[in-house]
Amino acid sequence: MARRALKLASLAAAASGIYLYGNKFLDPNDFGVVRVGRAISTTAVITYDYLTSLRSVPYGSEEYDFLKSQVHLRSAERLRELCCANRGTFIKVGQHLGALDYLLPEEYTRTLKVLHSQAPQSTRQEIEQVIREDLGKEIKELFVSFEDTPLGAASLAQVHKAVLQDGRTVAVKIQHPKVQAQSSKDILLMEVLLLVVKQIFPDFEFMWLVEEAKKNLPLELDFLNEGRNAEKVAHMLKNFDFLKVPRIYWELSTRRVLLMEFMEGGQVNDRAYMERNGIDVNEISRNLGKLYSEMIFVNGFVHCDPHPGNVLVKKCPASGKAHIILLDHGLYQVLSEPFRMDYCRLWQALIKADMKRVQKYSRRLGAGDLYPLFACMLTARSWESVNRGIDRSPVSASEDVEIRSNAAAYLPQITQLLNNIPRQMLLLLKTNDLLRGTESALHTRASASSFLNMSRCCIRAISTYQRSKSHSLYRRAQISLTEALSLWQINLYELFLWLKGSQLGNWVIALLSRMHHST
Fold first, then answer.
1. Where do the domains of the chain lie, and which CATH numbers do they carry?
2. Whole-angstrom Cα distance, residue 439 to residue 281?
3. Half-sphere exposure of residue 468, counting CA atoms within 13 Å on the CB side?
4. Nearest partner of 47 among 65, 71, 66, 24, judged by Cα
5. What span, in angstroms and rounded, lies between the C-alpha atoms of 96 and 430?
6. Would residue 305 show up in a list of annotated catalytic residues for this protein?
7. pTM of the entire predicted model
8. Alpha carbon 518 to chain centroid distance?
9. Which of the listed residues 266, 402, 426, 514 has the most CB atoms within 10 Å of its CB?
10. What is the tens place of the pLDDT at every residue in 294-323?
């Protein structure tokens, strides 16, 4: 009887499997038991690998470091395969980890970076279903043309180029239909698995990752929120004529569908594209730094996903000016005033190599005794460079290797630090690393102009804050005068640097030298 029941169950399972795989509307990956089973088995294999591979090797030996690197790589590849299979929230979290270049071992960041280009695509039928449910019409009723192949596909959505009935060319962002239902279950699953791993490896402190996903995913899944963010940042930074933010068409936008002005250009890290189109690489890097310094230090409203696919550049044929196009406004970090002021003062101290203030403001931001590590994480520079002054010399190849090696060597301390600092800091660290990746691709890292722009924004932000807290007209005037003098000093120093690097400056120096020798 038992054998007969087992045979019937096997036949039923086989028939179910054939039906699921043969039915184009059903994907086994969408079933909870499959997703949970895959996540549990991957976590178990990675945990077992770490427990057994390093057990019999002396800690700190060359063999230990080599084996650890191999375990990191195997684990990162397994994690990448899990993200690609489970899709949605898993890919989003994997992309977040892949962006932490100077905070996680290189084996992880290098392996997980590919998730930006391996996001799943929804089928035409799924796209039609979402548009029909949200806008109440078929695609052919809304658009004269609609390109089947997406311009880009991400973890939560994909974007198509289309032409409206009135002739306007638009970008249509459409959410993957199953993401909304799966996201909360996926986050719960990740939380449980991370808690289990922490019981085995007490130094493993990655709960901050789940907390961030819990907070940010609902916001990113609401495209109306993204539209509001786009309009807010466009208004906030309207004085930057080089910045372009696509206009939102609210009449055809919902929580899962976002229609916006179509804009195109080359990715911000594509140096070859800029050279072909006569775009000044240094100007783009400088302007990108201005944008983010303004967002972080002055406004406290920060676009936190500046990976190259979300930041485009294009030369305007009419004016000849290069524009920066900022896309994907789903993820913003709002910085509280106390946090923003401490962060401003910390960066001022880092730029001036004022170690007492670096320690003071790092501690105020939750770094505790790990403030040297925190300073290195923020600047992506060695402790020696931080002490000497991060604006004194560019990043050398050997220093870059040292920083990446330290990310692996100090992983327990880094995860402890990430667990202790304010949640506002986490997305800023990710943003910093993404911007540094762009600067590295353009060969403009640690340029003096970027630090000067940061200094200007810090001075303006602190002065504005101090004036808002002062009730004395004399004190406010005093603050404004100090601000003006500080900004004037920066302008003077920038002029000096320009003269020093220009042909005119070389002539002036040569002339002064000859005059000195003649006297």
1. 24-120+179-219 (no CATH), 124-178+220-333 (1.10.510.10)
2. 10
3. 8
4. 71
5. 7
6. yes
7. 0.82
8. 57
9. 426
10. 999 999 999 998 888 899 999 988 888 999
